[in-house]
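Format notes (please read before filing issues)

Several people have asked whether sequences and structure tokens are stored in separate files. They are not. Every record keeps both together, in the order shown below: the sequence lines, then the token lines. Line labels are part of the format and must not be stripped during preprocessing.
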Amino acid sequence: MRQNATPSAPFRLGTLLAALAVPACSAAPISFFGVAPPGRADAYQCAVAQLNILGYTIEDGNSDAGFVRGRKQTSGLGLQIVTGNTYHDVLVATAFDNPATGETNLRVVASRVADHDVGLVGGLGDEPEQGEDRIAPSDTGRADAQAVLQGCGVSNINSAGRQQEPLVLQGAVDGA
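Then the structure lines:
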């Protein structure tokens, strides 16, 4: 008697749901940083320019404090209508001089938000759901954060954040 080697539908559905849930488990932002050419004010101005070049809308910033925050919509109209959410990549760049080393540092933190709007499904109630949820940064947001640093002359880019989770997951799947 021959047995079917194809996994059952409930198994495939469970595997798919688990795969989708894993990336959504962490809403932690990811930081990218490195040493920029000297001058905090120049590094700040460069970060503002790079965010503009990449299509981000500047939401907040302070040249005296050396930080700027930009947001770029990443979801299309179809997704907005169906889910009721608008997705944005958010980058926050901070330029600062390190007195211990005398170097100018530039850090860019990538995150993503889901703004709750009224959509086709969400608009059935009397009141629209309003608010914002932080979710894991998109691949594009992470790439844009690195592009800001590269555009500002940072050649040795370091990162801290959620990037090591897939390695931990892979070890768990492999039985390690």
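For reference, the curators noted about this record: Strands lie at 30-36, 57-62, 67-73, 85-98, 103-116, 131-135, 158-160. Residues 97 and 104 are 4 Å apart (CA to CA).
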